[in-house]
Amino acid sequence: MDFLNAIVAFANFVLVPGTAYGAQLALGALGVTLIYGILRFSNFAHGDTMAFGTMYVILITWGFQSLGIGFGPLPTALLALPFGIVLTGLTLVGTDKLVYQFYRQRKVKPVVLVMVSLGVMFIMNGLTRFIIGPDDQRFSDGERFIISARDFKTMTGLDEGLAIKTTQGITLVTAVIVVAFLFWFLNKTRTGKSMRAYSDNEDLALLSGINPERVVLYTWLIVAALATVAGTLYGLDKSFKPFTYFQLLLPIFAAAIVGGLGNPLGAIAGGFVIAFSEVTVTYAFKKVANYALPEALAPDGLAQLMSTDYKFAVSFSILIIVLLFKPTGLFKGQSV
Amino acid sequence: MTRRDSLLFVFVGFLILGTGFAQSWNSALLILNMGLISAIMALGVNLQWGLAGLFNVGVMGFVALGGLATVITSMPANTEEWSVGGVRVIFGLLLGAGTIIAAIMVHQRLPAGRNRVLAMLAVLIGGFFLFRYVFDGGVEAIEAVNPAATGYLGGLGLPILVAWPVGGLLAAGAAWIIGKTALGLRSDYLAIATLGIAEIIIAVMKNEDWLSRGVKNVVGLKRPTGVPYEIDLQNSASFVEKAAGLGFDPATASTIYVKLGYAVLFTIVLLILLWLSQKALNSPWGRMMRAIRDNEVAAEAMGKDVTARHLQVFILGSAICGIAGAMMTTLDGQLTPTSYQPLRYTFLIWVMVIVGGSGNNFGSVLGGFLIWFLWVQVEPMGLALMQLITAGMSDGFWLKQHLIDSAAHMRLLTMGVVLLLVLRFSPRGLIPER
User: Fold this and answer.
1) Which of B107, B343, B409, B410 to probe the A interface (max A CBs under 10 A)?
2) Contact B208, B339 (CB under 8 A)
3) Which residues of B touch A102 (CB under 8 A)?
4) Which candidate, A145, A274, B58, B368, has a CA 20 to 30 Å from the CA of B385?
């Protein structure tokens, strides 16, 4: 029984939150990796793109809520999500036409594009703060739990409860749908194939008549969808704060690099590797250990490897270790 | 410098003087002092980016290490804290460092294979728990001593001017560790690594209360020799008399006098560093660095050790940022880890370098002053603009209130627009590389 309790406590505090967080990071990392593979630069504005997309979704959600439109037990934000994606897509394509296209045609060095993305990051960050403010915004409504800790306890008779928040369930389901759709698109459709061809070998792709501007356009649209979905899911699960989204840049990049930049499958694996390590290393294992170990061995302290504030250190250390021993990432990525 | 460059400097001088006449001399001197510090930071980044093409987005971390240096060199040592846990903490840190060195040695000595991986893991995991056991006890004891006032080890009690080079050394040490691991990999990886290390340095400074009191801040840092306290000036009869002779009241005169004192010190540091940077730029070493930047393959073919040269310049540039960080904390008189924001301390410095002209030391200095001036003045300008836009709206209208409240966020927006405009229309900056 104690052993079961230990497993449930572990699942409640590590497995479930880690899976949800991993799915959010994976979606973010997919965006970074697609831009890297096709546009060939590290997009520092990605965190703020996520914030920007989420801001659209929040504003539309508020609009729906004031009109009295709801989504039953599910959060209204899911209804607003498609509109948010369209608006973010328009924003990104507009940014590309206004800003990035010029440098792409000049064939500048990738690092100049990174610099340009810094400028875009500043503007997006400023606009987000300007429109919605720098403070925390909560916008989730509907049912809070799929299973609450108390229900779980009465159901199983265990001492430990396993709570699954609705947002965590939605995160996982949405992420699976989005990823399945993305891979179908990349592997089966003509446009998707041309994107992969362009990513693998630009010159050959151009020779076989692929229109680069079209590839770029689709990339931005997909990135907009991924970023908005990732940002909205993260905001529903935790809360929306522009600065937090900016800070997500580090774990997202870590996930993309650990998986191998430019490799979509790697981005997903990387997202979960980073998320689980962060949650595991910063979780206080006292409770689990109390159940799992005999009394004599039970720890006195919290049995926490590192304090929660060092979660950046975790993604960073994993990043460095992978880079030192496997410079192209776990799955083979490309290098510029 | 050409005539056009000098005119640009004169123009920035007029901007600051204009602030003095239009607003107040205190704010003008504040802009000047922070402009001097920003110029030094920009010099450091320019050394890395302009001279060597290294993309460092962890400026904030090095600046913060400089700030930490002021605490650990200039604050008096807290004897009680030292006696209860000082030795234990130091010993714990040595154990931690020893663990990493041991793991590296295992990696180098043993032949590759599963045994090596297992041995390294054993060393790292065992070392980690040993480290935590020794270290945590010491930390607990130290933080329990008088947490409301001290609760940290304190420093060496040296004059605060010593902290400036120490800040450079700390930053150089951190740069050495990052450079050793991330240089030689692809260029973007260095960017991500520096971004990460900066966040970690800030996290350490916020959480390790035994070191610098964490978010409880260290206040009341000493002032450098030559910079008196305002209250002493106001109590000195001769100073009050002189101020009255110039037509100032004693309170204003004393604050201006103190700021001028800082400005003189900062100018001396800036001039020394600028002179050194110019010497480096125009030396054989500087020409080699630029050659490496422009064509790494050719430089390698000529027998240059590219990674070693990159490491060198990365450490030098970071050290300059560390010195500037120590100077800034000295000017503030307190260390507040929560005030370090990446947009302000990393990306703003980058805007300075790009706008001023990467590869040109004078350009970076100019960019430092100009962008700092904009950063300070955009807020009142934004507010005025918003008031103009909303003048026709009725009071209490939600949009009017929202626009006026959000005027503060105009800063980031303006910096982004300035950066993009310069990159597009004048990618070599105001004073281009020659």
Assistant:
1) B409
2) no
3) 424
4) B368
Q: How far is CA A199 from CA A41, A105, A191, A192, A335, in A?
A: 12, 17, 12, 11, 11
Report CB contact under 8 Å: A114, B197: no
pLDDT at A272 over 50: yes
CA distance linking residue B157 with residue B72, whole number of Å? 8
Smallest CA-to-CA distance from B365 within B63, B38, B7 is with B38
Domain limits for position B304: 3-77+154-425
Question: Is the Cβ pair A323, B185 closer than 8 Å?
Answer: yes
| Chain B residues touching A123 at Cβ < 8 A | 412-413, 416-417, 420
How many structural domains compose chain B?
2
Question: Would you give the end-to-end CA distance of chain B in angstroms?
Answer: 10
Residue of B nearest to A251 (CA): B196
Residues on chain B touching A130 (C-beta within 8 angstroms): 406, 409-410, 413
Interhelix angle for B160-182 vs B187-207, to 10°?
Answer: 140
In 3D, which of B180, B218, B216 has the Cα closest to residue B197? B180
The mean per-residue pLDDT over the stretch A163-179 comes to 91
Instruction: Say whether residue B347 is in contact with chain A using an 8 A CB cutoff.
Output: yes
Asked if B189 reaches chain A (Cβ–Cβ under 8 Å), the answer is yes
Contact B203 A310 (CB under 8 A): yes
| Domain boundaries along the sequence of chain A | 2-325
The type of residue at B151 is G
pLDDT, one tens digit per residue, over B305-324 is 999 999 999 999 999 999 99
Q: What ipTM was estimated for this complex?
A: 0.88
Instruction: Assess if residue B433 is contained within a domain.
Output: no
Given this model, what pLDDT does residue B193 score?
Answer: 83
Contact call for B185 and A130, based on CB within 8 A: no
Q: What is the mean pLDDT of chain B?
A: 89
CA angle at residue B172 from B171 to B176, to 5 degrees? 120
How far B73 CA sits from the closest chain A CA (Å)?
26
Same domain, B107 and B256: no
Please tell me whether residues B200 and B264 are part of one structural domain. yes
Which helix (H) or strand (E) element contains residue A158?
Answer: none
Contacts of B295 (CB under 8 A, 6+ apart): none
Contact yes or no for A130 and B406 at CB 8 A:
yes
Q: What are the chain A neighbours of B414 within 8 Å (beta carbons)?
A: 126
Q: CB of A71 within 8 A of CB of A81?
A: no
Q: What's CA A278's distance to the chain center, in Å?
A: 14
User: Is B434 part of any domain?
Assistant: no
The answer on pLDDT for B159 being more than 80 is: yes
Confirm or reject contact between B423 and chain A (CB < 8 A): yes
Q: What is the mean pLDDT of chain A?
A: 88
CB atoms within 10 A of CB B385: 14
Instruction: For residue B322, give both structure tokens.
Output: 């560390």
Does B185 contact A at CB distance below 8 Å? Answer: yes
A165, with CB counted inside 10 A (0-12, 13-18, 19+), is buried
CATH architecture, domain A2-325:
Orthogonal Bundle (1.10)
